[in-house]
UniProtKB/TrEMBL annotation:
This is DUF2007 domain-containing protein. Residues 11-71 form the DUF2007 domain. It comes from the Bacteria. Pfam families: DUF2007.
Length: 75
């Protein structure tokens, strides 16, 4: 992965989808990496299904982390 991008989240796909939308709504274009989706497309399984990582450009890291930290999770 390009070193201009920083991982700001790793977790289940439900949370990843929510974070992705919040970042996009704030003008940040995240890159979402899903090992399970990559494995599925290649015809393989994965021991950790539905786990995603979100990366943002280095210049947007601070704003992205602030947005993520302000999310109220209902669990």
């Amino acid at each position: 992965m390009n070193t201009d991008y920083i991982k700001v989240f790793g977790g289940n796909s439900a949370k990843s989808n929510r974070i992705e939308q919040i970042l996009k709504d704030s003008g940040i274009e995240p890159i979402v990496k899903s090992e399970s989706e990559s494995a599925r497309l290649a015809g393989f399984g994965t021991p950790l299904p539905h786990i995603s990582e979100i990366y943002v450009h280095r210049d947007e890291e601070k704003k992205a982390l602030e947005l993520i930290s302000n999310i109220a999770w209902e669990e």
